[in-house]
Each structure stands twice: as C-alpha cells, then as structure tokens.
Amino acid sequence: MQKFSSHSNSASPRESAEEGVEPLLRMRGISKAFAGIPALRDVDFDLYAGQVHALLGQNGAGKSTLISIMSGALQADSGVMELAGQAVYFASPSEALASGVVAVYQELSLLPDMTVAENLFLGIEPGRGPFINLTQMRSTAREILDTLGANDIDPRAVVGHLSIANQQLVEISKALTRQARIVILDEPSAVLGSQELDLLYAMVHRLTASGIAVVYITHRLDEVEEIADVVTVMRDGHKVLDESQSTVSKTEMISAMVGREVLLDAPPKWQAGLSRPKDGPTLVVKDIVLPGMNGETLNFEVASGEIIGIAGLTGSGRSRVLRLLAGLEPPMSGTVMLGQDVIKLRSPRSAIAQGIVLVPEDRKRLGLILNQSVISNTVLSILSRISRLGVVSSSDSRNRTQEMVDRMSIKIASMKQEVRYLSGGNQQKVVIARCIGTNPKLLLLDEPLRGVDIGAKSEIVDIVGRIAEQGTAVIVVSSEIEDVLALTNRILVMRDGCLVRELIGDDASETKVLEYSSVRQS
Amino acid sequence: MKSLSGRFSNLFSSGQAVWLIVAGLAIVSIFLSDTFLTERNIPNLLGQTVPLVIITVGMFIAIIAGQIDLSVAALVKLTAVLVSGIGDGEMSKFLPAVALVYAIGLTVGLINSLLVVVFKVPSFIATLGMFSVLEGLVLAYTVQGVGSVPTSIVDFFYGRIGPLPYAFIALAVVIALVFLWFHYSRLALRMYAVGGDPEVARRSGVNSGPVITWSLVICSLFAVTAGLAQVSRAGVGAPTTGEGLELAAITAVIIGGASLMGGRGKLIGAIGGAILLVLIDNSLNMIGVSQYSQGLFRGGIIVIAIALFVSKRGARQ
C-alpha cells in the first residue's frame, strides 16, 4: 500500500494516476465570479485518498473560493465535481458534510459553552427517539479522540476551557465523527505554537493513514515540505503549479506564487536613499517584546518624513506592532521614543495626545461611525480643539471638513451625507482625514488599501506620500505586499513575533518578502 | 489566581450563587421577622412560588434557544379569565375549558414560531405583537373578574402535607421531569446549540427551525400551566391576573446566570431566580418594609446580582 506510507517516499499523484488509481475528488473546469470579477478561472483539481494536498497562493489567489466550492459554502458558476467517480453538486455545507467533505476553518465552529462530546455529536447524537445515549456518546467520543492521539482531552470538558490547539483537535475529531473522507484544513497552523505544530502534523498523518484525503492551506513553506504529498499553487484564479511535493523546491513555489516579474506602475512613493527625511522627531522602538508572543525584542527606527512597511503572514505580529504603538495593547517591556520624548502607551487617547494615530484595518467597524455624517466622522478626534465651553463650533467643523474634502478629493454628495453611503475608497479617505486632522507625528496604516478600487488606491497612495512629505513618519502594514511596495521600498519582514529581515531598495521585492516571511531561515 | 468577584461569578453562571442569596435572605428574614417562619407563612410562600417558577421554566427554554417570549403574561391572563369564565365553578365545564386553553396555548406558540422561523421576525417583536393581541382578546372577553374556579381545584391548591402544599409537590415532580428531559434529550442539546451559535448548529447539521418552534411552543404551554396555577390560587380570573409576569420570568432567568443572548445557562439557576423574586417580596412584607419602598430593595438586589455577573464577562475578554 504505497500511497498510505509516509509522505516522503509516497508516489506522486501522476504516478498514482498512471497506475490507474482514481482520484477521490476530481474537479474539472471550475469557474466562479463575484459581481463579474472572476475569482476562479477554469481550475482542475485532483485529490487522492490518503494524501496531504497543500494549497498555496497569496491573498485573493482563489484558494478560499476553491475550498468553499469543495465544501458547499459556495457554488461554482461552471465546471463539474466528482466524488469517488460519482458526479456531485453541493448546494450547502450540510450536503457536502453528508458526502463526507468537512472544512475546518480558522474561526472554529465549536460551541464554547458545550462539552467536547456534545460538540462532536451535535446534530448526529446517538440514542433512541428523543433521548440521547450519553454513555455511548462519551465512549465513542473517547475512541475518536484517542485515534487522533488526543488522550488528554476529556469528552466531558467544556470546550471553551480548552487551549486553542486542543479546540482544533476537537474540531478535527468532529470531522471524524461525521465519517469524513475529505478534510479541508484552512491555515490550521496560524494559531498554533511550535510544539502544538508537531501535534497537528501527527494528527494529519493519522488522518491520511486511515485513507482520508487532506487539503492543507498554509502560507508557511516549511510546513509544506514537512507534511504535503502534493502541492498546488494558485494565482489570480488560475492553477499555476501542481506537482508532487518532493519534486518542487521552495524557490519554485515562491516564484509560482509571485508569478510575474514584479511590475509596478510607478516607483514607491517613498524611496530609501532618495528622499531625505525631514528634520523632526524620529520614532525609536527599543527592546519591545510583543505580548503573548515568544518573539525576540524588536528594535527599529522611523525618521520623520519616512514611510516604512511591515510585512509578514497573519499571526506574525505585524498588526500587533501597530496596535502596540497606537496604545491598544501594552508592550511587555522596552521603550518607545518619539524624538526626545518617551512615549507612554496606555490608551489610544494618550497615544493620540502624543501624536500617534492609527488607521485601523477594519474601517467599517473600528474606523467609522457609519450612520453619521462626513462632518461628524472627520472632526471626531479634534472635537476639543474646535469647541469652546463644550460647544462644538459648527462653522469650524464645517471648514475643517471642507478643507479635508478638498485636499483629499473625497467624493461626497454633501458633508451631511452618512458615511455608509460612500465607496470604500472615500470611506478610507474620511478615516485618514480624521487621523491627520490631529497633526500626528506618526501615522500608522493597517491595510489602508483593502477593499478600495484601483483609482482610489493610487489617490490614497498619493495622499500618504504628501502626508510624509510634510514631516509625518508613516508605518504601513498590509497582507498585500504589492500595496506596501507602492508606498515604500524599506520593508521590515516579521515572522513569529520577530523582525527577521530589513529589505531596502531593490531588495524590497515581492519575492524577497514572501521568501523571508514564509520560510524559516536557518 | 482568581479574584473574589471572579469566584462569585463562576458560582453565578453555574446557577448556584442565586441559591446562596436565597438562603441568605431566608436566614435574614427568620431573624428580622417573627411572622416569616410560621405555619401560616411558609405554605403560603411555597404556594406563591408555583406560577412564577412554571412560567420561568418555559421562559428559560425559550431563552436558551436564543428567543424571548413577551406574550407569556398575556397568555396567563387569557387562561385565567377563560377557565374561570367558561368553567364558572363547575367541574364539568372547567375541564373542557382547560382543554381549550391548552389548545390556545399551542396555537399561540405555533404562531409565534411561524413568525420567527418562516417570516424571520425577531422573537422580541413577534411575541410583543402576540402580547397585544392576547391582551385585546382578554379585554374583549371581560373587563373585570369573571366566573370562578371549582372549589375542589382551589382546595387542592391550598391543601397540604405538613408545610408543603399539594401544588408545590406537583411542581417539584414536574421540575424533576424537566431536569431529566434537559439531561437526556436531543432537543435540549440542540436548543443550547441553536441559541449559542445558529451558524455552527447549521454547519453541524442541526436545522434550527424545528428547534425554535419547539422552544416557543413549550414556553407557551408552560405559560398556560402557570395561568391555571395562578387562577386556582386566586379562585377567580380577572384581567389583572399575571400582570408583569413576563418581566419577572425574564429577570429570574437572568439572575439565575443564563445569558439573554441564548445558549448558556442552567435550569437550576433560573428556578432559584424565580424563588428569589417571590422570597424577596414575601420577606419585605414580613420584615415590615413599606409597600412603597419595596421596589427599591427588589431592584437593588437584582441589579447588584447582575452587576457581579457582568463584571466577569468583561474580565474574560
């Protein structure tokens, strides 16, 4: 039984196919578009029983769409799916579930207030008539947990009291109670530490040993080497690479993910070496340790008028650096200085008072009060400056807002328009307008170009460039490396809470950033 | 290391804290009042708990499934005036009237769940509408006390073994059955799931429609039962019977440690909450607190208890 043996010497899918082994799941010509924009274009995908199939690609490459179609959460516009030789169509997750296709997402689908056994058997409780056979439910739960090596999880434990790693084990056990034939793991490692990672690998091996096919989504190429039999790389909705893992190198995977020679329309807004930083306070981050991460100390400087990018995978700590500087999370140790002043990072309010503002990642939830006007949103952070005796001057706030609207060419029907009616790009401009209204010394941008159309993107890039020219230091974080590269060519790459590399000038390329953020350097 | 309030609130969410408060208040009342621990007051107190405990059990089931039912007090009222009015003191008419009100209760529960499940009206709104409709029916039927309950029924309610009224014993039996049902039933497990996270329940293959329907129907049937208990105690049904019971039941569920968002809570706590509310009123009377300042004490005890619970929720995040 060659295909059940350890991954490193198992047959490649091509060889298996030549030997006449049918794929467990065969997808042909799968296409899917959202509002006319194609997310998947004519993708073929073969999944074999007992194999781990790694699925790679950058954000927006089409991985999520593909697994959503596999698991019934989305339906393909065209194309066919065959499960064990039978044509199938999944109209909902429960139909996919019934056929043995189980997706385990990052946000776990467990009920934290219920016990492990109750979670495992929810919807398929053993028993007769209206009653549950509790003894049978617990003993079967015990057996299933044991087959995954989760001997220390009590079926009677309340799920919310378990560690994240154990909750993930429960989630996968839940897949097993439902007679899974295909288990889709969506970035299972993003929330795990390194010891927990070994547990995960062991469990995946147990799954494949029993003939289950595993789709494994990850951004970490080390894991692919460790665990995968087959690698598929997606880019822009296409399948660009589909190989046996043993025959493909990390470099090939990276170049498949990046794909093209990185063609930027324009040089970055700010370029290390070319633009000279203004005279003004320099941000000095010294010996900071991110809370809850076992990283090393972080040290870096940002000069006044300089734009730097921080890149890294989800969970690398890139956004936490911003949260920390914005006063949302206290650091474990270390100091932050802006010029001569030591910054006390206690709350967003004190950060703003000391000249640091954050444009948050989720502007609809954290950045804007959606059902209030453009004016209210623009002047929210400077109310005390434009009010006398507690009364907000309406002429001042109108003038301030008008000034910002002109400066950033925000397209609005009127200043009293509720911001929820604005486009993504214009909403983002309103958030930035409010932030720079406080005359910050340091501007923090988390995913500034997410959900923004292409035209507004270049306008926002220009706006940020102008803000920097006036002497504000800017730090930008994004999961889209391209977006960071549009703004700057000085990039700090983070991995597991550590700064692993500083890339400057020509070194700051999509390929290099991907390489340092997704491959452990020895 | 757990803070004192953290420890207290763990007791709270497990439904134990409310029983400690019940015990504490009972002890205080015994010391402060000569009339509290008497042969007259104790059976009376136990009898008083019956309607509220019944309606609270129903409300608890609705809340666990992520719903709320504001129509229960109006259903108590309708039950009371109908069995009293139609029965008019005669057993031969009383029993069909009981069958009628249970049929009405079933219908009300089904209509509520039709609105919630099929028409996607939030249960808060759907049952608020049902509340108005039922109130209207009551007032269309009578604007004052009407008829009476057969004396044998009233006698049963007040009859007792030692300090325990028959009605209270019957209640204890029903509650024991409900406990067993909660422990072993498939439906109860799914109610917690649907109330806790409907999306997770759906992905696990639980269809929320029947679960919500059952929860609202059971809640209505318990409300009818509470109405029968209430009118049997009073002897006559009136449009004022059961006024405000829905809020009392919701309060009881919440101080019993359950989450108003659904999916979390223990039945034992909700029952303790109902008993606490009855005990507070009885104790304040027995201690001799003026009618006018009773609201202050009642509200104070409830708010402090809930504040302790909420402080834990905040600390966890």
Mass-distribution shape of chain B = globular
H/I helix tally of chain A: 18
Number of domains of chain B: 1
* CATH domain fold name of chain B: ABC transporter involved in vitamin B12 uptake, BtuC
Keywords:
heterodimer, A: 522 residues, alpha/beta, Rossmann fold, six-stranded mixed beta sheet, 33% helix, globular, B: 317 residues, mainly alpha, two-stranded antiparallel sheet, 2 strands, 76% helix
Task: Describe the protein's architecture and organization.
The complex is a heterodimer of chains A (522) and B (317). Chain A is of the alpha/beta class and 522 residues long. Mean pLDDT of chain A is 84; it is low at 1-18. In chain A, the strands form six sheets. A six-stranded mixed sheet of chain A has the order 6-9-10-3-11-12, sandwiched between helices. In chain A, strands 18-21-22-15-23-24 form a six-stranded mixed sheet, sandwiched between helices. In chain A, strands 2-1-4-5 form a four-stranded antiparallel sheet, covered by helices on one side. Chain A folds into four domains: 2-100 and 180-258, 3-Layer(aba) Sandwich (Rossmann fold); 110-178, no CATH class; 261-355 and 440-522, Rossmann fold (3-Layer(aba) Sandwich); 365-439, no CATH class. In chain A, 33% of the residues lie in helices and 23% in strands. The relative contact order of chain A is 0.11. Chain B has a two-stranded antiparallel sheet. Chain B has one domain (4-316): ABC transporter involved in vitamin B12 uptake, BtuC, CATH 1.10.3470. The longest helix of chain B has 28 residues, at 91-118. Chains A and B meet through helix 3 and strand 8 of A and helix 9 and helix 10 of B.
Sequence-ordered SSE layout with sheet pairings:
The complex is a heterodimer of chains A (about 525) and B (about 325).
Chain A: H1 13-18, E1 25-34, E2 37-47, E3 52-56, H2 63-70, E4 78-83, E5 86-88, H3 93-98, E6 101-104, H4 116-121, E7 127-128, E8 131-132, H5 134-147, H6 164-177, E9 182-186, H7 194-209, E10 213-217, H8 221-227, E11 230-235, E12 238-244, H9 250-258, E13 283-288, E14 298-302, E15 307-311, H10 318-325, E16 335-338, E17 341-342, H11 348-353, E18 356-359, H12 363-367, H13 374-379, E19 387-388, E20 391-392, H14 394-407, H15 424-436, E21 442-446, H16 454-469, E22 473-477, H17 481-487, E23 490-495, E24 498-504, H18 510-518
Parallel strand pairs in A: 3-10, 3-11, 6-9, 9-10, 15-22, 15-23, 18-21, 21-22
Antiparallel strand pairs in A: 1-2, 1-4, 4-5, 7-8, 11-12, 13-14, 13-16, 16-17, 19-20, 23-24
Chain B: H1 4-13, H2 17-32, H3 41-64, H4 72-87, H5 91-118, H6 123-141, H7 151-158, E1 160-161, E2 164-165, H8 166-184, H9 186-196, H10 198-203, H11 208-234, H12 245-255, H13 267-287, H14 291-316
Antiparallel strand pairs in B: 1-2
Helix pairs in contact in B: 1-14, 2-13, 3-8, 3-11, 3-12, 3-13, 4-5, 4-6, 4-11, 5-6, 5-11, 7-11, 8-9, 9-11, 12-13, 13-14
